[in-house]
From TrEMBL:
Pfam family, one: Oxidored_molyb
Ranges of Polar residues composition bias in the record: 450-460
Gene3D superfamilies, A to Z: 2.60.40.650, Oxidoreductase, molybdopterin-binding domain (3.90.420.10)
InterPro entries attached to this UniProt entry: Ig_E-set, OxRdtase_Mopterin-bd_dom, OxRdtase_Mopterin-bd_sf
Disordered: region residues: 449-470
Record protein name field: Molybdopterin-dependent oxidoreductase
Coiled coil: none
Organism listed in the record: Nocardia xishanensis
Stretches assigned to the Oxidoreductase molybdopterin-binding domain: 209-359
Length: 479
C-alpha cells in the first residue's frame, strides 16, 4: 500500500507536468503564457510584506524565481490532488483550470490562447487523475510528454520574441549617443558613465515584457482634454530631445544595483499637454500601460515644466529595449521608478483625483517619492600608481538637483571629500574616486552624497516600504 501511495503521488505530479506543458504550449502558440499569467496573478494579489520579502531575497532574479515557483507550485498542487478521493479529483482539477483561465481573461492582459491553454490543462488534469496513475513507467511517460511540451513552448516564446525584436530593429536608431561621453574618471570595476541596456536593472510586475507591434501602436492622450491626440512613434520622434538621467528603483537599498544611468530620448510632457489642452478639472495625468500598470502624476507642475517629465521613446541611441518599455514610457528624472511613469505605455489619460494607482491600492503613498541622494562604492583596489595605497571609486546620484559633494569616512572617522568626475547632467549619476593610504588590517569605508539643494544623504537605515530606503553603503577592506 505504501509504495502504491508514493507512486500515486509521483504519477499525479507527472500528470501535472504534462498538463502544464500542454497548457503552456497552447498559450505560447498565440503569444501568451500560462505560467506567466499565474505568476502575474500572484504578483497582483500578494500582500505588501510578501512582495517586499520577495524583492529583498530574490535580487535581480525575481522573474526567474517567480516562474520556477509557479511551475513547482503547480506540480506540487497536482501531486496533492492525486491524494484526494477519486471522485473529488476531476472537479478540483477542473477548478484549477477554470481559475487559471479566469486570470487569463482579465483586462487588459487578456489572452485568448492562454484561456485555451488553461482550459486544456484543466481537462488533461481531470482526465489523467480520474484513476490515480500508478507505476514508475506511467509517471515517466507523462513527465517525458510534459517536458517535451515545455520545451516546445520555450521555442514558441523565442519565435515570438525574435519577431518582436526584428520589428524593433526596423524602427531604426532613435537619437544618437553621439560622442561617447567622458568624465575623465575611468577605473577598473567602476560602473560605466552610461549603463548599457543589457546591464540596466529591470523591475516590473510582469514575468515577460509585453510584445507591442510598433506599426499599429499609437500613443493616445485622452480624458479631460480639449484636443485628444493619437500619435505614432515617428510623430513622437519628431518632437523628441535627448537628456541624461539616472533611474532608481524604490527598492534599491544602500549599495545595490537597481539603478542605471542612460541617455534618453523623449518628448517633454509639457509639450504634449500644450497640444492636448487639459480641462481645468484635470488634476492627474495617468500613465497607463498595456500590462495594466498605472502611475499618475500631478498635471499642473508637468504643464508648467516645474516637474520636467518626458514621454521617452529612446535609450542610448536606440528604441527602448523590450524590458525597458518599448515603444514608450514616461520618466520624470528624480522620482523613483515606481513613481516616475509606466513602461509599455498605451495611454496618457487626464483625469481628476479619483484615480488610484497600481501600488497605491496596496498601501504605497499617493504622494510622489523622490530619490534620496546616494553614493555607492563600486571598487576598492590597490592603487595602480603608488604602492601601499587604495583606490576607491563609485557612483553617486541626487536627481534632479545634482551631486554637490561625495565624502568618504574611514573607520568611522571624519567625512572627507573625494574627487568628482565631470557632471553629464544634474539628473545623471556622477562618478567619484579617491586614493587612500591605510595601515595594514581591516578597515571600514562609508560613502555619502550631498545634493546641490543641500540635502545630505541620510545615515539611518530604513527599509524601502513605504517612503523609500535610506542608509549608507559600507564596505570592509583588508589592506
Ligand atoms: N508598465 C509598467 N511600468 C513600470 C513598472 C511596471 O511594473 N509596469 N514598474 C516601475 C518600476 S517599480 C520601476 S523601478 C521602473 C523600472 O524601469 P526599468 O525596468 O527600465 O529599469 O519601471 C516602472 N514602470
Ligand atoms: Mo521599482
Amino acid at each position: 500500500m505504501r509504495t502504491n501511495g508514493k507512486s500515486g503521488g509521483l504519477g499525479a505530479a507527472a500528470v501535472g507536468v504534462a498538463a502544464l506543458g500542454l497548457g503552456e504550449t497552447i498559450a505560447a502558440a498565440g503569444g501568451g503564457s500560462l505560467i506567466d499569467t499565474i505568476g502575474r496573478g500572484l504578483i497582483d494579489t500578494a500582500p505588501v510584506p510578501v512582495v517586499e520579502a520577495t524583492v529583498a531575497l530574490s535580487g535581480r532574479h525575481d522573474k526567474e524565481i517567480t516562474r520556477l515557483g509557479v511551475g513547482a507550485g503547480a506540480i506540487a498542487a497536482t501531486a496533492a490532488l492525486g491524494a484526494l478521493p477519486p471522485r473529488l479529483r476531476a472537479p478540483t482539477a477542473a477548478a484549477f483550470g477554470a481559475g487559471a483561465a479566469a486570470l487569463a481573461l482579465r483586462k487588459p492582459t487578456r489572452s485568448a490562447s492562454t484561456v485555451a491553454g488553461a482550459s486544456a490543462a484543466g481537462a488533461v488534469l481531470a482526465a489523467g487523475l480520474r484513476k490515480r496513475p500508478g507505476g514508475l513507467l506511467g509517471a515517466l511517460a507523462w513527465s517525458a510528454v510534459g517536458a517535451g511540451l515545455l520545451a516546445a513552448a520555450r521555442t514558441l516564446h523565442r519565435d515570438h520574441d525574435r519577431l518582436r525584436d526584428s520589428a524593433i530593429r526596423n524602427v531604426g536608431p532613435l537619437g544618437g549617443i553621439g560622442l561617447v561621453p567622458d568624465d575623465g574618471l575611468d577605473e577598473p570595476g567602476l560602473s560605466p558613465l552610461i549603463t548599457t541596456a543589457g546591464r540596466f536593472y529591470v523591475a516590473d510586475v510582469n514575468l515577460r515584457p509585453p510584445r507591442i507591434d510598433p506599426d499599429r501602436w499609437r500613443l493616445a492622450v485622452t480624458g479631460m482634454v480639449a484636443h485628444p491626440l493619437r500619435l505614432s512613434l515617428a510623430e513622437l520622434a519628431a518632437d523628441a530631445v535627448e537628456f541624461d538621467a539616472v533611474m532608481v528603483c524604490v527598492h534599491n537599498r544602500a549599495g545595490q544595483g537597481r539603478a542605471g544611468n542612460a541617455r534618453w530620448l523623449g518628448v517633454p510632457l509639457a509639450h504634449l499637454l500644450k497640444h492636448a489642452i487639459p480641462e481645468p478639472a484635470a488634476t492627474r495625468l495617468v500613465t497607463r500601460a498595456v500590462d495594466g500598470y498605472t502611475i499618475s502624476l500631478p498635471v499642473e507642475p508637468l504643464r508648467t515644466g516645474e516637474l520636467p517629465g518626458y514621454l521617452v521613446i529612446g535609450m542610448n541611441g536606440a528604441p527602448l529595449p523590450p524590458e525597458h518599455g518599448f515603444p514608450a514610457r514616461v520618466f520624470v528624472p528624480g522620482l523613483y521608478g515606481q513613481y516616475t511613469g509606466a513602461k509599455w505605455l498605451s495611454e496618457l489619460e487626464l483625469t481628476d483625483d479619483s484615480h488610484t494607482d497600481y501600488w497605491v491600492r496596496r498601501g504605497w503613498p499617493t504622494d510622489l517619492l523622490w530619490v534620496e541622494p546616494h553614493a555607492r562604492i563600486d571598487t576598492t583596489a590597490p592603487g595602480r600608481t603608488i604602492a601601499g595605497t587604495l583606490t576607491v571609486a563609485g557612483v553617486a546620484w541626487a536627481p534632479p538637483h545634482g551631486v554637490a559633494e561625495v565624502e568618504l569616512s574611514v573607520d568611522d572617522g571624519p567625512w572627507r571629500p573625494v574627487d568628482l568626475g565631470t557632471e553629464l547632467a544634474p539628473a545623471a549619476w556622477r562618478r567619484w574616486r579617491t586614493t587612500l593610504e591605510l595601515p595594514p588590517g581591516a578597515h571600514t569605508l562609508r560613502a555619502r552624497a550631498t545634493s546641490r539643494s543641500g540635502q545630505v544623504q541620510e545615515s539611518a537605515t530604513r527599509a524601502p516600504f513605504p517612503a523609500g530606503p535610506t542608509g549608507i553603503h559600507t564596505v570592509t577592506v583588508q589592506v
